Amino acid sequence: MSMQSENDDAEELDSGLLERFSDVLDGLGSLNAASELTGNSAQQISKWKKGKAKLPFRQAAILAKAAGRSVDWLAFGGAPDAGDGALAHRHADDDHDHDVVWVPLLDVIASAGPGYENARPFELSKLPFPRAWLQRMGLPEQHARFLGSRGDSMEPTIMDGAIVLVDIRSRHARTDGIYVLIDGPNVRIKRIAVGWQNAVVLISDNERYASETLAPPDAEALRVAGKVVWAGGEI
Questions:
Q1: What's the pLDDT tens digit per position in 80-118?
Q2: pLDDT number for residue 121
Q3: Which of 61, 138, 177, 233 has the highest CB neighbour number within 10 Å of its CB?
Q4: Is residue 199 within 8 Å of 212, Cβ to Cβ?
Q5: CA-CA distance, 78 to 223, in Å (whole number)?
């Protein structure tokens, strides 16, 4: 398995999260086992464990699931759980809380660059999101999905490693915006502008990357999986 490159810039992490992540790694048996699951080097995972590099949420979620722990426990702590079953029980307990929606986090990594392969994505877990924010964005909860992202070509709008919220109703780029695009087995995130004679321009918000122009029929063949509406803030 090829090793994915990482941004080694460390960010401040609370000691509780690092301790829980260390427990997850202990449950997997070795850093090499974690490396096989995520495609990252054992050295990079060791940096996450020690708080010397940013811990990407998607990789943390994959490892937590493999270790039988829920993403909810990893992120927020509390009593140790037994993975998805405990998380489902937590969801049931929270049904009375109408202020929160539990949005599926898919095992998909969308590249703000050339594209990452995503074969047969599945639901990793569910993450809480304020119901009022969904309503303000006009996004019904059944059409909301979280995806992971990788790459710096959409910075500063979408930071490398960010979790993005997608409106999966948007299957065509009818208006300008940031979309999740399907290119064979690869998934990309790009800003789209509809140009002259139905040409489509794929724009990177990072000025270091050039735009791509697709003329018909390539523009018409572009598959859209959804529109990005939130990435640490509303878009």
A1: 555 544 444 445 444 445 778 889 988 887 877 555 545
A2: 61
A3: 61
A4: no
A5: 41
DSSP 128: E
Which residues touch 181 (CB under 8 Å, ≥6 apart)? 187, 188, 189, 190, 202, 222, 223, 224, 225
Instruction: Tell me the pairing of strands 177-183 and 223-230.
Output: antiparallel
Domains of the chain: 1-95 (1.10.260), 97-235 (2.10.109.10)
Tokens of 141: 């909860």
Residues 6+ apart with CB under 8 A from 205: 153, 154, 155, 156, 157, 158, 191
- Please, is 13 exposed, middle or buried when counting C-beta atoms within 10 Å of its C-beta (0-12, 13-18, 19+)? middle
Beta bridge partners of 179: 190, 227
